[in-house]
Amino acid sequence: MELPDPPFQETYKILFDQNIDATPNRDNDLVIVEECELPLIDLSRLNRGELEREECKREIAKASQEWGFFQVVNHGVSREILERMRREQVKVFKKPFHEKTNDKYLNFPAGSYRWGTPSATRLRQLSWSETFHVPLTDMSGSAALTSLRNRARHQDSLWIVSELAQMLAEILAEKMEHKSTFFKENCLPNTCYLRMNRYPPCPISSEVFGLMPHTDSDFLTILHQDQIGGLQLVKDGKWIAVKPNQEALIINIGDLFQAWSNGVYKSVEHQVVTNKQVERFSAAYFFCPSYDTVIQSCVEPSIYRSFSFREYRKQVQEDVKKLGHKIGLPRFLVCN
User: Fold this and answer.
1) What CATH number does the domain containing 172 carry?
2) 249 inside domain
3) Where does the record place the Fe2OG dioxygenase domain (predicted)?
4) What is the pLDDT of residues 63-74, one digit of tens each?
5) Which residue, 31, 113, 130, 202, is the most exposed by fewest CB within 10 angstroms?
6) Is 288 part of any domain?
7) Whole-prediction pTM value?
8) What's the maximum distance between 2 C-alpha atoms anywhere in the chain?
9) 150: left (phi over 0), alpha (psi -120 to 50) or beta
C-alpha cells in the first residue's frame, strides 16, 4: 500500500497517541454559522467615473474595517489563467514526497517546501497541509515555477496581483486621509511571497486543522481558493464559513496594516478546516515590506509602538516555538 504523502500520522505519531485534545482550544469553541459570502467588490467600478470610483473605494475601506476580508471580481486575472495555474500547481504537489523535500529535484529555493507543524505539541496545533513558500523574485529560478508562470501566457498573473495589492494598499491609505508613497517604496516584488497550498484528505478531520487559527503577518494577502472551500473567519464572535467564488480573489488585511492604520483596518483571525474525502488547493500572495521597514501608525496617538518587520517576525517565531501559537500585535501595544 502506498504511504500517505506527506506522512503526517507517522511523523506526528506521538501527538495522535497522547490523546490530550479532549478539550478543544478556546477559539474552536466559537459557534460556526452557515456558509456565507464575503463582501463582493467589482473593481471595474474604479474606471466608471468619479462617483462610482469613490463608492468602490469606500466599500473597500468599509469591508476592511468591519470584516478584515472581502473579495474582488474584475481584478485583471481571468478565470482561465487561474485554472491553468492551478493545474500546474497540482502537478508540483503530486511529485513524490522525496522530491518535494529535496530542493535539488525541483530546483526550488532552499526551505521552500514546508508541511505539518514542527513545533506542535498537541493535535490542535498541527496543520494538516503542505506548502511551497517562494519569494516572488525567485519564481524564475525553478523549472517547475517557470512552467507554472509560462502557462499563464498573455498576462503575467503574479505581477498583476502585485499591482493589485499596491492599488488596494493605496486606496486604504487614501481613505485614512493619508496619501503616501510608503507602500511603493517598501513593498517591492523582492519582499513579497507566493505560497501554494495543498490540504490532503484527513481521516480525523474533526480533530485537526488544515491551517490552525491565526492572523497574517503582512499588510495584505490575496488568495485564490478552489471550489472545495474550507476557509473560515471570525465575525461578530462566530466562525463564518466562506463560500467559494471561482471568479473572485479574496483579500484580507494583515497585522501590519492593522498597526499602520492604528487599528482602523482589522487583521481578523481565520483558519482552514480539513476534509475527510477530498483535497483542497489554494494560492496566496503576501504583500510584505523589507525586514528593515519600520511600521508605525499613520495617526497619533498610536495604540502600537513602532517596530521593524524583522522584529515582528522574530517575535512571532519565538512565540510559536515556545507557546505553540502566535501572539502577534498584542505584544506591541504601547501599554505593554
Assistant:
1) 2.60.120.330
2) yes
3) 188-289
4) 999 999 999 999
5) 31
6) yes
7) 0.91
8) 63
9) alpha
Please report, as a single letter, which amino acid is at residue 186: N
At 26, the pLDDT band (50, 70, 90 cuts) reads: very low
Q: Is 280 a catalytic residue?
A: yes
- Which set of grid coordinates corresponds to residue 44? 471595474
**What residues contact residue 32 under an 8 Å CB cut-off, 6+ apart?**
232, 238, 239, 240, 241
Question: Closest Cα to residue 223, out of 256, 255, 254, 189?
Answer: 254
Q: How many domains does the chain have?
A: 1
The C-alpha cell at 26 is 478556546
Q: For residue 307, is it within any domain? A: no
- Beta-carbon contacts of residue 35 (< 8 Å; ≥ 6 apart): 229, 241, 242, 243
Classified as helix, coil or strand, 326 is coil
CA distance linking residue 75 with residue 95, whole number of Å: 31
Nearest to 203 by CA among 270, 128, 131: 128
Cα 192-333-179 angle, rounded to 5 deg:
50
Domain containing 164 equals 8-294
Kind of pairing, strands 270-273 and 231-235? antiparallel
**Catalytic-labelled residue, pool 86, 124, 198, 280:** 280
Q: Is residue 1 part of a domain?
A: no
Q: What does R_g of the chain's alpha carbons equal in angstroms?
A: 20
